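>> received
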Amino acid sequence: MKIKKILNNSVILSLDSNDKEIIVMGRGIAYAKKVGDDVDPEQITKKFILSSMEYPQRILDLFSDVPLECIELTNSIIQHAKQKISIELHDSLYISILDHIRASIERYKEGITLNNKLLWEIKNFYKDEFEIGLYALQLIEETYNIKMQEDEAGFIALHIVSSETNDDIHQTYEVTNFIQNITNIVKYYFNIEYDSQSLGYYRFITHLKFFATRLFSQSEGDNRPLESDLLDMIKEKYVRPYLCSLKIKKYIEEKYQHSLDNDEILYLCIHIAKITERKD
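>> returned
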């Protein structure tokens, strides 16, 4: 493997065995090197196939512009995320986190702070990812002596969620807004405050995450009719949770033009019953 272009002392552009351009990283990998020199494979810590990523020129510009300590900081965050989360993370996460941290540091130096309007939802819906965001803020403070608000941890958490679901960041915002709206319907229907530490709440949020992913990917349910005796049992045993489920059904149909199948209504009803059974 030979150096095609030096982006900085720790990042180069090279070619793989199929002559595809790849970004190769490693501390000091390009130090005292020039174009055409061999790459020491033992120094390589990360590779990116450039053609598999969107906006390749932007990525090249990013690595050329970002200081080494920011690249290493991002790598530490990604390694921590891999230990914290069992789901495989997409390579694009490295780029999005690196770009976000660089931009947030620039904003901080200019005295600009962004409020994260979904911070409460992120803290409660994506607890592991938010913890990783807090870890990132800790590293930023240690590296740059900059103390950022928790809002930034929330933004970083959403980038991680996007990587987990292989969605773009805009769809992740949509999913989070969807969960917020559904939980608000239940909250105000029953006039309750959630116990965000309870198992029932965790299961309800997990169910909504998967449902939202299906909704925004346009995956339809099978629309099978419920057995009449099961439907009667649900109506009789969980009257208010069932009526609340119908309210959610109407909201989704009007907002997203998506018709809930009967199985989905059943699951919603059961989850709602579990988180409201002591308050109903």
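>> The chain has eleven helices and four strands.
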